[in-house]
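Now for today's protein.

===
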Amino acid sequence: MKHFYLVITFLCISFSYGQDAKGNGDIKGFKLYPNPVTSGKVYISTSESTPKQIAIYDVLGTQVLQTQINGTELNLSELDAGVYVLRVYQNNKVATRKLIVK
């Protein structure tokens, strides 16, 4: 039952963020595609070309991946299918999105 409440809370929070940057400290021009991920790769693009710090958490809040990318491609082939929270840090700004891996 505890897991059910965590998943419901996560979904409510993730819907409030949406998929496009809308200001409020978000990274300008942030795009995440494809979502859901089926090929093991996801592309993260922003208006700026500076390196991006990436952190991915499972629905229980455990960090499952931390890396830095210089381009747009992020390899997720080591992640199991499921729902995750993706956080991108770039130039003292943060974008948080729900990420689905199939």
Observations:
- The longest strand covers residues 82-90.
- The chain has a mean pLDDT of 84.
- The helical segments are 2-17.
